[in-house]
Amino acid sequence: MSSQTLRIAGIESESIVDGPGIRLCVFVQGCTHNCPGCHNPQTHPLDGGTIMQTEDIWQMFAADPLLAGITFSGGEPFLQPEGLVWLARKVHEQGKNVFAYSGFTFEELLARGREDKHTEELLQELDWLVDGRYIEALRNLDLEFRGSSNQRLLDRKAMHELRNTLLR
After folding, report:
1. 46 SS3 class
2. Is the pLDDT at 168 greater than 90, yes or no?
């Protein structure tokens, strides 16, 4: 798989709030969830943002030895999974980790993955996933890496166990 393009809203070069450690956070452009109270409503238009080569994003990541990993946020990362898979694999090749936020639940992503191989591939590359739509009435500032209490922070083991439970 070669480098791809992504429509992005922005990049935070050294985030300390979007996953464990210091991270490059890629905010993808485009989201159809339209959660009331969303932290990043400017990322919703599907035709907004700018087009970037994943190779250019990778070069930004590779140039910073302080980074523990990469985070895909948005917008909705799973509307552009193909380019993110490429990036995630490059990050893993360097022994670093991958964290993603999605308004889809893990169960919804599994269903999407049955129809779209890139969604399934991206799920397989994640070390952590925060899933579920942001619900303003359930906002909780005490939650690690999450905005509302309905959202789950799933690590690789939890995703594997949940997948096995759902496939029974």
Report:
1. coil
2. no
b/e sequence 93-126, b meaning 16+ C-beta within 10 Å: eeebbbbbbbbbbbebbbebbeeeebbbbbbebb
Residue 82 φ then ψ, to 5°: -60, -50
**Four-residue CA torsion sign, 79, 82, 83, 89:** positive
Tell me what pLDDT residue 131 has: 98
Tell me the CA distances in angstroms from 84 to 27, 115, 124, 166, one per residue in order. Answer: 11, 17, 12, 25
Q: Residue 149, CB half-sphere, CA atoms under 13 Å: how many?
A: 5
> What pLDDT is stored for residue 1 in this prediction?
58
- Per-residue model confidence as pLDDT tens digits over 86-116: 999 999 999 999 999 999 999 999 999 999 9
Tokens at 139, concatenated: 């906002």
Phi/psi at 47 (5° precision): -105, 10
For 87, phi then psi, to 5°, come to -60, -45
